[in-house]
Write a structure and sequence with these properties.
Elements: E1 5-8, E2 21-25, H1 30-43, E3 46-50, H2 60-66, E4 75-78, H3 81-88, E5 98-101, E6 107-108, E7 119-122, H4 131-136, E8 141-143, H5 155-169
Parallel strand pairs: 2-3, 2-7, 3-4, 5-7, 5-8, 6-8
Antiparallel strand pairs: 1-4
Helix pairs in contact: 1-2, 1-5
Length: 177
């Protein structure tokens, strides 16, 4: 069994437990994860990956999508969901901060409120989040509204829309220089 691995620490900064975080559960496409990593770098948001991953962290596609921002990405790889939740607890239950994204269930992202300490959770590209997780946290499910004839949005696009919406609603948008 693999262990949790902290891959990079963003510029030596320490993140408070009140900082928003992104979780990708079993991502399959390296380019989407690379885009999420670049977004994490741009917003100072910690990125968590839950194994198994559908690619190697050495993938050239992953690195290309993240460009030269990798040294600024604070990323942790967790062997499974329960390890992630345990490590995110940081003295208080992580479950209350979870916001699980689904293509078809939950409140609209654009109607949700955010405090700024949420953990935004996204499933893999082909299946989304496991149904047992969505059933376990039905009041914490969010969706980006789409027309019924569209199966889902691209993972990287959804992560971007969700994170910037949550940062804006919580008053935590990065300040432009």
């Amino acid at each position: 069994m693999s262990q949790t691995r902290r891959i990079r620490m963003s510029c030596g900064e320490t993140y408070e437990t009140t900082h928003m975080q992104i979780v990708l559960v079993e991502p399959e496409i390296p380019q989407n994860t690379g885009c999420a990593a670049r977004l994490a770098s741009a917003t100072g948001t910690r990125l968590h990956l839950v194994e198994p991953l559908g690619f190697s962290l050495d993938s050239r596609y992953l690195k290309r999508a993240g460009l030269d921002y990798w040294p600024d990405v604070d990323m942790t790889v967790h062997p499974d969901w329960s390890t992630l939740v345990s490590e995110l607890a940081e003295g208080r239950p992580a479950e209350s901060r979870l916001r699980l994204f689904s293509a078809r269930c939950g409140e609209s992202l654009f109607e949700a409120s955010f405090r700024g300490d949420e953990i935004l959770v996204f499933g893999c590209e082909s299946k989304g989040l496991p149904s047992e997780l969505l059933r376990q946290f039905p009041l914490q499910c969010l969706t980006v509204p789409i027309l019924p004839n569209v199966r889902s949005l691209n993972l990287a696009n959804t992560v971007c829309v969700a994170l910037y919406t949550a940062l804006d609603r919580s008053g935590r948008l990065p300040v432009a220089p």
